[in-house]
Amino acid sequence: MPIERKRLVQEMNPKVYAWDPDSFLSVGNGNLAYTVDCTGTQSQIAHTKGKTPLCTMSSWGLHNYPGKEEKHYDRLILKQYEHAGRTVGYMSDDTAQEALFHDLRVNPHRCNLAHIGLQASGPYDMKKMESITQELDLYSGVITSDFQVEDEPVQVLTLCHPRQDQLSFRLSSPLLKRGKLHLALLFPYPAHDITASDYTKPESHHSELVEYGDGRYCIKRTVDTMQYEVHILLSKHACLRQSATHEFMITASQEMLEVGVLFQHGQERQEVVDFNQALDACTLHWASFWQDGAFIDLSSSSDPRAQELQRRMILSRYLLAIQCSGNTPPPETGLTCNSWYGKFHLEMHLLHAAHFALYGQPHLLERSLSYYLDILPGAYERARSQGYQGGRWPKMTDPSGNDSPSAIGTLLCWQQPHPIFYGSLLRKTHPESALLSSWVPVVKATADFMVDYVIWDEKRKSYIIGPPVIPVQENHDPEKTVNPTFELSYWRWALSEAIDFMEQFKQPVDPKWKHVLDNLAPLPMRDGLYLAQENCPDTYTAYAYDHPSLLFSLGLLDGRDVDQKVMEHSLMNVMEKWQLNELWGWDFPLMAMTAARLGKPELALDLLLMDSPKNTYTANGHNAQRPKEDLPLYLPGNGALLLALALMAGGWEGSDTPYPGFPKDGWIVQAEGLKKFW
User: Fold this and answer.
1) Which positions of the chain have pLDDT values less than 70?
2) Domain covering 5-61+110-289: architecture
3) I need a surface site. Which of 222, 310, 336, 392 has the fewest CB within 10 A?
């Protein structure tokens, strides 16, 4: 019988009963996200280290400090590396150029567009909230917050319009009519830290109020060279006035107040819609999201961990939809707060968004894939400047496609095959995708670089990777790293897929692609174990920490060049000898995928739910990375979890039993609409 999707989703609705920065909830649409405290607004400007700040962030809201708009990469001294007889310069050393290096990393940075919060006046104090009951209805996308301020009831409904960058609020309380409660908009100056906000520089930006009548207002924001508008629609018997340089108060003479807040930039022009229109759009959107995509039901399982895994899965799907389905790849902390200045890391794009295709929602992946077409000219130029053919994709970047200086990031290469991964994923799961025909130049540019990047080793008569290269497991010396296992396997997989892709679209294939594919070095191993990389005999001792990427060739990939006995031995050695507390949130699901493909479903479940500092999921569904990284959320962990569950429930090519990644004992799985992994 059909899965009772609505019931299962709503059973996982997050509920909040106290002020708790680990439980802050968010609404969003992929391009805008608004994070709230237990009032359903941002009632306080509060941030505790390692906790979630309260921000309103967008995919387009990025800022440069004055004088940093022009990126002077031409002034940066590159560190020169020898690579197969050629000298290649990388932005990997800040010696004697620390300021320039820092400027290029920090600019642009994502900013907090507005702080929108309830404020009390007179004898009332918002910090004395009582009887707090807040719930995010995942099936409608609406947060309902009920509480009392000194024995007076307050209710707030909060939502985000699914098709435009609009927030909507409905506030109800006797305090509104008595003038003891109002909604305030505060505008900070941007900052590159986790809060994205600086309230100490009111003279450095401008907020101009324009009133249009009929409850419509506009606040025109000018922040250095950044400009945007905040359009506001109020219900009857309400007004907006400016109370300070960058502070605006919305008051009402009735017990109910409805507010729409629309953020606009550039030439885009939309109209603020009233609360009921926004509510209708929001509820229809989220009902469709849950009903139209795939679904996995674990609720009949007797394993006591099933409920928690179901919770993590459902909340992860919601969080990635509101944070990672926008027009550009998302930062690691999405649109909640700044990590790495709000820039995004393209090697993580796969973990943020690839699951959408497997869950039957390819359009949510395709939105951000057009970004690669936009930055393709820059990828060509990056490769050319380093002496390579094709296009080389950046690592830590922004909408411009510029790369960021880094001792590690510029030497990573595992983001390079990702566009081929996306093309293959869509080709196999959604062959009708309109994006595929436009993807040919992306695949060609990607593969052309890949075959020029490898080195012909005459002695062994094969192509090798590196040096210089830093692998997924970033604790290796780039000048001593040769043939990192995952990268070598990914090169082999992606070139094979690129050839198939081009042939399907009747495009010519460069003979060098096949020559490199046929002559890539084998995966490095020693004593029946895969190594992290060829020059790392102490993989399972001195280097047994950070990402165990040697396992991912069979898991994320299909293991077409893997000896399964060797991989099984390697997995068990990682389990025994690795510093598992040092793993990141996305390592556990990717290891679970390896275990599943090896026929170890019990281990796969143990890995998904392992008790480890960076495998924790807070009440709001976020994968926190503590204590070392001190990140309150880390969305690649959520995305990797969904990839693993899609593989374990939906199976892979060659799997011939239902739900092959789940044990038979204690687990009853029902799934609808999943696409099979390769």
Assistant:
1) none
2) Distorted Sandwich (2.70)
3) 222
